[in-house]
Hints:
Blueprint: H1 3-35, H2 40-71
Helix pairs in contact: 1-2
Amino acid sequence: MGLNETGLSLLQFFQSPAVISAAIAFVVVGFYFIFGGDRGRSKAIGWIVGGAGGLIIIMGAVTLAEIVNDNIKF
């Protein structure tokens, strides 16, 4: 098992908690929209950006690692 496979397996391991964390962030967004009052929308936008940005970063890292692992041989 080389360095590429180890990195890919670590990223795949951390992918599940990242998806769960993003789901929790989107639940918090819903609560802010419903019960946030006047400032709820501004707080919710920050949570949306954080949750979606984190999800995009981890999914992109996994995809990039898979592409590198498939195309580069040492």
